[in-house]
Amino acid sequence: MKIYKFGGASVKDPQAVKNLFNLLTSNDHSKLLIVISAMGKTTNAIEKIVKKYLEETRIPEELQEIENSHLEIARELFAEPSHPVFSKISGLLEDIRNFMKHNKSKRYDYVYDQIVSYGELLSTTIISEYLNSHNFKNTWLDARTVIKTDSTYRDAQVNWEETQEAIEKNIDRNQVNITQGFIASDADNFTTTLGREGSDYTAGIFAYCLNAESLSIWKDVPGVLNADPREFTQTSLLNQISYEEAIELAFYGASVIHPKTLQPLQKKEIPLYVKSFVQPDGKGTSVRRGNRIEPEIPCFIVKKELVLISLASLDFSFMVEENISEIFRLFHLYQMKVDLIQNSAISFSVCVDNRFNKLEKLIQHLKARFRVKYNTGVSLYTIRHFNDDAIASLEKDKEILLKQITRDTVQLVTRN
Questions:
Q1: pLDDT score, position 316
Q2: Nearest C-alpha neighbor of 144 from the set 161, 130, 128, 158
Q3: Going by C-beta distance under 8 Å and a sequence separation of 6 or more, which residues neighbour residue 321?
Q4: Could you report the per-residue pLDDT of 108-153, keeping only the tens digit for each?
């Protein structure tokens, strides 16, 4: 069995859905599980609705725009106005409204997961129905019934034993299955999500549990590039990457592959192919056992809107294990992802991702024990397999707040 994963850009409008159909019919699809993200920028739009809902405690009018946009896509895909897809779309939006009417919780992370998950439910409903209407027979699967997690909303941890059992019980390996990326459920069947951009991870989970032949991730780029073309002017295709190197690149922030995706694939040596849905016949990039990276050229990565925090003890004593363990306890408490660490005898600097918006509380807590300086909105640049020219090009015209060099990697924190 093979696993295909399509991101939001590959299903953003009716033409994209038709392109997906053409891609599927031109490949062997007899035993296939397809993981699909929300359409286009739907997740971003629903995130704004969640924020407004919690601020105003009423159903935002923007929810109607979500319904209208998906109905419009369906109208261009289905000639028959009475097709059941239209009532299914409206039914999903009615589910959101009912949740908003009856919900009593003010917990952002919980509410976020219950609402944002509908982006994937809408996209997969439309696509499954479209494929079936064109004799591409498939079974729609609610990922929440098979991917089981803890209750860490917005960043849920997979219960592998329960997930394995549910997938084996509910998936027919001899047919085409269509399901959602990003979403799962906890022991009480409340919806959870696997972290932003977690649809790749969903595909990795299914690949692992189904002992898949391969996983193909279809993108709007020709494969894994040595830099993001939206941030860097000159980029080159990487033909092959080892699992270890891909995990390194993902950890530092390479956006093509979600960091968690690679570990389950590596355990069972399931090859990953990153290919272009625009040019599906292109070679793409393979991630598998083998040479570290081909060709071996500098790889550039940037993560923006981070926070650089510098700490020192109040009495100028050494920053020893006791201090550092307390700092990391607080990072865990406030859900800060650490991207870079640098310490000296009396100071400790760290670059973190404030994706859960808990920086203010963290800083107040840290000030009780440390002298604290911090800069928000910084950028972290990473070069893997660097050379002097690569470093010089990156440092040009930038205010560098921190620089760190190891054997294979150089990192720079710059002020925007």
A1: 77
A2: 158
A3: none
A4: 999 999 999 999 999 999 999 999 999 999 999 999 999 999 999 9
Say how far apart CA 64 and CA 415 lie, in whole Å: 40
* Separation in Å, CA 142 to CA 88, 180, 196, 217, 389: 14, 7, 19, 20, 49
Q: Which of 42, 34, 47 is nearest to 8 (CA)?
A: 42
Cα distance between residue 408 and residue 416, in whole Å: 25
Q: Looking at residue 29, what is its pLDDT? A: 74
Between CA 182 and CA 195, with CA 238 as vertex, the angle to 5 degrees is 15
Measure the CA–CA gap between 309 and 321, rounded to whole angstroms: 18
b/e code 277-291 from CB counts within 10 Å (16+ = b): beebeeebbbbbeee
State the chain's maximal CA–CA distance in angstroms: 75
Burial 371-396 (b: 16+ CB within 10 A, else e): ebebbeebbbbbbbbbeeebbeebee
Contact residues for 64 (Cβ-Cβ < 8 A; gap 6+)? none
- Tell me which H or E stretch contains 66: helix 62-77
Q: Measure the CA angle with vertex 141, ends 137 and 143; round to 5°.
A: 150
Q: Find how far residue 298's CA is from the centre of its chain.
A: 24
How many Å from the N-terminal Cα to the C-terminal Cα in the chain?
Answer: 46
Reduce the DSSP state of residue 16 to 3 states and report it: helix
Sequential DSSP letters for 346-404: SEEEEEEE-TTS-HHHHHHHHHTTEEEEEEEEEEEEEEES--HHHHHHHHTT-EEEEEE
pLDDT at 416: 74
Q: What pLDDT, on the 0 to 100 scale, is given for residue 391?
A: 95
CA distances from 245 to 183, 208, 289, 349 (A): 27, 20, 10, 26
Say how far residue 352 (Cα) sits from the centre of its chain. 17
The residues of the chain scoring below 70 in pLDDT are 256
